[in-house]
Amino acid sequence: MRRWFRRIGSxxxxxxxxxxxxxxxxxxxxxxxxxxxxxVRDGDTLDLDGATIRLAGIDAPEYHQNCxxxxxxxxxxxxxxxxxxxxxxxxxxxxxxxTAEDRYGRKIGRCASTLQADLGEAMVRAGLALSPALRGExxxxxxxxxxxxxxxxxxxxxxxxxxxxxxxHLLAPQVDEGA
Length: 179
Prior knowledge:
The chain has a single domain (32-168), classed as CATH 2.40.50.90. It is globular. The chain has five helices and seven strands, in the order αβββββαββααα. It has helices at residues 2-23, 77-89, 119-125, 141-150, 162-168, and strands at 32-42, 45-48, 51-55, 67-68, 74-75, 93-101, 107-112. A five-stranded mixed barrel has the order 1-2-3-7-6. The chain has a two-stranded antiparallel sheet with strand order 4-5. The chain is α+β, with helices and mostly antiparallel strands.
């Protein structure tokens, strides 16, 4: 009889855990931050009322990074990426759903502004950021394919992957000048 009660108890516990897992975000919503952007650091990082937030699912050129257009002429893709994110994020309030924190203490999240429902997707669609595959999945793969096909932004010519550029320029300033 005790064995039977133990099995029933285990099944009830398992059912409860499955129920909690299924409800997920409804019971435990992700942390959110809302406020005004104080500063845009580069094409994928901004300061929002005291917190540094890196846009989830994208990698934009570093502020000092240059790319080449279709004719091989260098252009300041990192500065252009920052300027675009700045134009979409500084005109009103931002709301970010935070998903994690990186090793540098930055919060990682998906952010929306009054001008763009998803700033990360907008940057990728404009061709000013990449959507690297995370765990085999690229969150903005369709937006990146659209930008590549239309030759927008980075895709108009040649560029170093932002991660490769960072590795080659370890001494490059991490903070922009004049922001």
